[in-house]
Amino acid sequence: LNRTIKIMERVQVKFSAEGFNIANTPHHSNPTNSVSSGTFMQALGIANTGREGIDERTFRLGIRIGW
Predict the structure, then answer these.
(1) DSSP class of 52
(2) Which pLDDT belongs to residue 11?
(3) pLDDT at 5 (0 to 100)
(4) H, E, C per residue of 33-51
(5) In terms of C-beta distances under 8 Å and separation of at least 24 residues, what long-range contacts does 19-26 make, across chains too?
(6) Would you state the pLDDT for residue 16?
(7) Percentage of the chain surpassing pLDDT 70?
(8) Distance of alpha carbon 42 from alpha carbon 32, whole angstroms
């Protein structure tokens, strides 16, 4: 989300907000493929495939002043 507000003719303030993985959805690892294993076709681990290797809910806020 972005919002730009003009303070004066040449001065403006820009607010921004970003959200990553808002639903906090886990990324499961591939299931085991060994038929003789007791955990055959079970995805037991969580893979770190999120943004920058971080798989958690993240919010970022920013303010920019331009003139």
Answers:
(1) G
(2) 95
(3) 95
(4) CCCCCCCECCCCCECCCCH
(5) 19/57, 19/58, 19/59, 19/60, 20/50, 20/51, 20/57, 20/58, 20/59, 20/60, 21/50, 21/51, 21/55, 21/56, 21/57, 21/58, 22/57, 24/56, 24/57, 26/55
(6) 97
(7) 75
(8) 6
Task: Please give the structure tokens belonging to residue 57.
Answer: 């809910």
For the chain, list residues with pLDDT below 70. 32, 46-55
Burial class (CB in 10 A: 0-12, 13-18, 19+), 21: middle
Q: Which amino acid is at 54?
A: I
| 10 class by beta-carbon count within 10 Å (0-12 exposed, 13-18 middle, 19+ buried) | exposed
